[in-house]
UniProtKB/TrEMBL annotation:
Keywords: LIM domain, Metal-binding, Nucleus, Repeat, Zinc
Domain LIM zinc-binding: 8-68, 119-179
Principal location: nucleus
Listed GO CC annotations: nucleus; Z disc
Protein's recorded name: CSRP3 protein
Gene Ontology biological-process annotations: cardiac muscle contraction; muscle tissue development; sarcomere organization
SUPFAM superfamilies listed in its UniProt record: Glucocorticoid receptor-like (DNA-binding domain)
Organism for this UniProt entry: Indicator maculatus (spotted honeyguide)
Amino acid sequence: MPNWGGGAKCGACDKTVYHAEEIQCNGRSFHKSCFLCMACRKALDSTTVAAHESEIYCKTCYGRKYGPKGIGFGQGAGCLSTDTGDHLGLNLQQGSPKSARPSTPTNASKFAKKVADVDKCPRCGKSVYAAEKIMGGGKPWHKSCFRCAICGKSLESTNVTDKDGELYCKVCYAKNFGPKGIGFGGLTQVEKKE
């Protein structure tokens, strides 16, 4: 039957959509006021819509309903969501929350132990994390603490020496701990005894 109303039917309210108010998505037409997430009713646009068959969602609700499930599949880095998806018609937890937990006891101190195992910098005594760790003398150091104990010069693997748990540049090490006498330790002139 021909469409005498002048426009397509809205995918949400099934009323006529005229060209001036039309938004198209996934081959269907919508009124601007009807272009809403089917779960949370948030207004959508071309950058926030996610279509699934004849349904439209915001990206967050689409991910909750059709995305991967389980721990670690949150909405962003480091996210742990407690959203059960009830407003989406999902039944992610079977039974009560206590029955969803593992029956074996977990080691509550596992996290505390991991935090306690973080290496300490010998110079400042603060924790040294992997992103800032430089090894020298068999110990972890902060980059800012990886300096000669005498002159304060920044050290690298090519000019570092260690003695008794402390770091030195090769020049300071030679002057303070190297052999002494003529030709050693920076002595260049010798006074003649007459």
